[in-house]
Amino acid sequence: MTDFRLLGPVEAVGDAGPLALGPPKQRALLAVLLLNGNETVARERIVDELWGDAPPRSAVQSLQVYVHGLRQALGADRIETLGTGYRLRVERGELDLDGFEQRFDSATRSLAAGRPAEAADDLRAALRLFRGSPLADLAREPVAEVERPQLDERRLRAVELLNDAELAQGHHERLVPELERQIADDPYRERLRRQHVLALYRCGRQKEALDAYRSAREVLVEELGIDPGPELQELERQILRQDPALAAPEAPAPGRIDLPTPPTPLIGRLLEIGAVTALLRRDEIRLLTLTGPGGTGKTRLALAAAEELGPELRDGATFVDLAHVREEELVAPTIAHALGVMEGASAEEAVAAHLADRSLLLLLDNLEQLGAGTTVIARLLAAAPRLLVLATSRSPLRIEAEHEYPVSPLALPHDAGGSHFEELAANDAVRLFAARALAVDPAFELDDGNIVAVADVCRRLDGLPLAIELAAARSKLLPPEALNGRLERRLALLTGGARDRPARQQTLRATLEWSHDLLDREERTLFARLAVFEGGWTLDAAEAVCGDPDVDVVDALSALVDNSLVRRLDRGAEHRFTMLETINEFAAEALDARGEQAAIGGRHAEYVLGLAVDASPRLLQGDAATIGRFDDEYDNLRTALAWFAAAGDVDSEVRVLDATWNFLTIRGHLSECRRLLEGAVERSAGARPETRALARIHCGACAFRQGDLVAARARTEEALGLFRDLDDSNEIGRCIGTLGNIAVGEGDLDRAVMLYEEAAVLAEEAGNKSRLAQILANLGSIAGQRDDAETSARYAERAVGIHRENGERDGLAVALHNLGRAQLSLGHLTEARASLVESLELARELGYREVTAYGLSGLAELALLEQENERAAELLGAAENLFREIGAAVELGEAEVQRRMLSELYDVLGEERTDELRVRGAAKEPAELLAA
């Protein structure tokens, strides 16, 4: 099915969203074919409607092109060629204009049969299909001049019929101002004038009614030269004799809004209320289920939406609490009781008869425990065509008419360290905490001293309204700072909710137990086992770690998602899944109770090890997708490393670190990486020699990057000795190359060259082109420090060529940077810009923060050479800040360049202005600076 829309901009919306309909003439062709849907339209007529009286010579050829374009957009079988004409096949219900006409005809029949309320419902629905002026995007096309007046006339007929339906219901008072607005837009329509006069008379405003008649007569006579029609003249006579036939009908009683009043005001959720009410106003949505984990505030949101929508419905809104109902047989009696319906022989039949002709919103609260017992809702919707149902459930009802609206926790406050008081105080989660804390402690006040702790509490509670309210209720006993410190065990702390809440909502644990108890055995097993994951998982990961012959992971995971205990994260081609931290804590307790922590934790660690080893070659190449995958898996990586460390399995621990080394360094996780490696070195006495050597070489490289040259040399020389014992020439070459890096850091360039040249020979013997390219890049860097820019450029060009040949993007980023700096020294500024920008773009794509920092410094040098001094100062500030953020030491040569740039900027701009610009640059994202 496709939704075709003409009553506004011309649109076609398929299952995947709006279709690209091409240029105005092509959309105009679609409009012509839709207005004559399922009929053959002659080519000559189409040409007339598309080009008017003066079509171009190429009109027929252009028409064929437009037909071809529409077939590509809509499907080749949509448009048939019949002779020299075309026919567009339109199914029932696809065109908004057809829907409008069906509702208009239904309203006409209802009004004639004395059912004005039903007529008004249909007419409002019909008029909602107008999204502005018909064919709004074709205002300059001839088809709009021909067809829009007719479409506008249809809309006005519906407006007039709705006015009649309102008058027939006794709604004359609220109709008067609307009629005055309508007459201002269309002063010559007698039917509007007649309705206005009658509405004024029924309001007891006889003089104004007669004045309105005289005004209508003057407009018609003076501007159109015609007298009022016989119906309007007769209405004047009836008013003058106060004809009883004009008496207003008794207005129906307003719909009953039977909703409980929440004890506290709702905080936030304005966007969600608007979204829910907008969905329920759509004709095709009659059952909307609010889903989400316990504690997200589904009921409060539903009540707020029902309170807003209920007055728009003829028979209002009714709340039905089904939390204690577990058998399908009790659903209909519970609804009957809420509606005040006598049950008789069959409660369901009585409810269906009561609702049959009513326009009502039923708010059915807490349906998750019913499972398949909700089919009665489907039968009621079929029996009552104007019934709307708003349901709350932790899982979808799986009824054909159902539309689902997932209710997320409140938006989390931003990182408190970088946020202002006003920004944090405006966050809805923080506002909720403050309001509930004030309710239990009148002395509570948000201030600079506690707002960071409050924001941290809200973040650690995942923005769950129930959890935040329970935490805030502890404010009389614990200030926010102390409360934050006790949240390691949330479930034990978050108790003592209001006694008038349902029992399942008085503690967070009870809320989670309510959901957990509704799961079957396989679902409970999987739920507990998933607690071993940190930061999310894929379906493959869940099957590998948690699956066994007794657990169908696909079905069980689907059920956990449906029950809102697991959240799906849409990221590219592969879905990831995660739990809120509060739910994860409950799952971990369940896993411990099952006695499976050791077994499942071990399977998780082995899975991560396999994932890392398999990805290692792609990580070495700097494959952006693989690096991005490990961004997602970083917390699982940490968990696995901690597991191996606790188990004393240093070999596996170091295998993981070795396999993911390139990821860890590209992303700048230097401090954590070094800490892990130092721990592995300390525990490696009984490990294999290869393990001991790898831990030390990586540890030495980390220390070098952090500027700890003494530790770097010691660890690298230990590794070199171990690799010599193993006679591993490839790793010996790596150690010698790292010692060359350390020599550069120590300022001993001669020793560095000697070591690099030795490492280059070993790399060539081992066929390690990647390492050879790195060594060449380093030799080029030394040549640059010795002011030999030509040699530096030659080395860098060779390194760039090798990295391009090998497809190694991270190494290419480094080599291009070195080449750009050499080109700057040679005065080749255009070539330097190209090299530096390509390097930076690669580094940004990879998230290689250290190379990004060097690249920003390179662009600062370029800007200074081009006398863009203020831009140079911003770029320098950004580079300095990024080096600080990642904890990387700046190489001696680079440090000297930065000192020189800063001195020049101080001379040109002055210290105060330069420092101001450096601070401004530090606050900007690298992407923003690069774009400029």
Write a structural description.
By secondary structure, this protein is mainly alpha-helical. Among the domains are: 3-119, Orthogonal Bundle (Arc Repressor Mutant, subunit A); 170-252, Serine Threonine Protein Phosphatase 5, Tetratricopeptide repeat (Alpha Horseshoe); 256-406, 3-Layer(aba) Sandwich (Rossmann fold); 416-509; 519-595, Orthogonal Bundle (Arc Repressor Mutant, subunit A), CATH 1.10.10.10; 848-931, no CATH class. Helices cover 63% and strands 6% of the residues. The protein has 45 helices and 13 strands. A 6-stranded parallel beta sheet has the order 6-8-9-10-7-11, sandwiched between helices. It has a 3-stranded antiparallel beta sheet with strand order 1-2-3, with no helix packed on it. It has a two-stranded antiparallel sheet with strand order 4-5. α11 packs across α12 (298-309), α29 packs antiparallel against α30 (650-659) and α40 runs antiparallel to α41. The protein is globular.
